C-alpha cells in the first residue's frame, strides 16, 4: 500500500514523500531526503507532533500516515 506525506524543510519548502507502507523506517525517509535534498542523513532530524523521530522507528510506530506533515530540522553538531 503506497501512501504520501509531506516534510517541511528548514527553508519552508514542502517535500512530498511516497513510501510503500507503514513499515518503512524514519532512517529510510532520511535516506530519501539525503538523496533528494543533498543533506547528510546524520544532520537531519525529523519531528512530528513535537516529538523527535528515531531512525529505527517505523512510520506506523510514529503515527505517520497519508496526508501527515512532519518537520525537518538540521541537527548541528558542536565541536571542531
From TrEMBL:
Query: Which PROSITE patterns does UniProt cross-reference here?
Result: UBIQUITIN_2
Annotated InterPro entries: Ubiquitin-like_dom (IPR000626), Ubiquitin-like_domsf (IPR029071), Ubiquitin_dom (IPR019956), Ubiquitin_ubiquitin-like (IPR050158)
Kindly list the residue ranges recorded as spanning the membrane: none
Residue ranges of every copy of the Ubiquitin-like domain listed in the record: 1-79
Coiled-coil annotation reads none
Alphabetized PANTHER family for the sequence = UBIQUITIN
Protein name in the entry: Ubiquitin-like protein
The organism is Leptomonas seymouri
Organism ancestry = Eukaryota, Discoba, Euglenozoa, Kinetoplastea, Metakinetoplastina
